[in-house]
Amino acid sequence: MQQKAPRRTRERILELSLRLFNEFGEPNITTTVIAEEMNISPGNLYYHFRNKDDIVNSIFSQFEGEIERILQVPDGRRSNIEDVWLYLHLMFELIWRYRFFYRDLNDLLSRNRKLELHFKQILAHKIKVAKQLCEDLRTEQSLEASDPVIDALATNMVVVATYWLSYEYVRNPRKYTEQQSMADALARGCYQVLSQIGPYLRGETRLLFQKLSEEYLKKIT
């Protein structure tokens, strides 16, 4: 059986840095800490990355590529409530995988011009997709809302999703790294975002939403 080739040092540095940033916060991790955890010299680290911002930007490029794949509406048909539910699940899973960007967001944006510009674009894209999902539901007569209401719903959905992990961290910082606690937190986040459009749903879609919500609430209570 052919053995897998060992991962390149650059890939290992990015993987370890992401784990450290997520666990301890990006401001608390230096290139020295990363080199020590990698068991390599600082010089070896700087051969692959000029500085910590270079590492952060490389991780952000990975994140950006993954989120662009998620921020897509279904091809050839209009979205339904299950598409919205799936979209939120995938989005929150990705937010958790790269959670340091969201937990340390204000600090990172204040000193990293690339992140500042690109994160604005991501937020705008998220709002555009959320708006499209709502408009598809309205076209199918599954949602009753005016254009201004849909604009507000799309923005509010993105705001809650963006800052949900910060809210959960303040709510219970000692359990922030516990896997089950955060799985429940992400589930609550999905429900909180989707519950914003609940009052505007109509017909069978409203009944399906109620059914999905009941099943969801049982898991997180």
TrEMBL record:
One of its GO terms (molecular function) is DNA binding. It comes from the Bacteria. The keyword Cell membrane does not apply. Keywords: DNA-binding. Residues 7-67 form the HTH tetR-type domain. It comes from Pseudoduganella namucuonensis. It holds the Pfam family TetR_N. This is Transcriptional regulator, TetR family. PANTHER family: ACREF/ENVCD OPERON REPRESSOR-RELATED (PTHR43479), TRANSCRIPTIONAL REGULATORY PROTEIN (PTHR43479:SF12). Transmembrane segments: none annotated. The keyword DNA-binding applies. Residues 30-49 bind DNA.
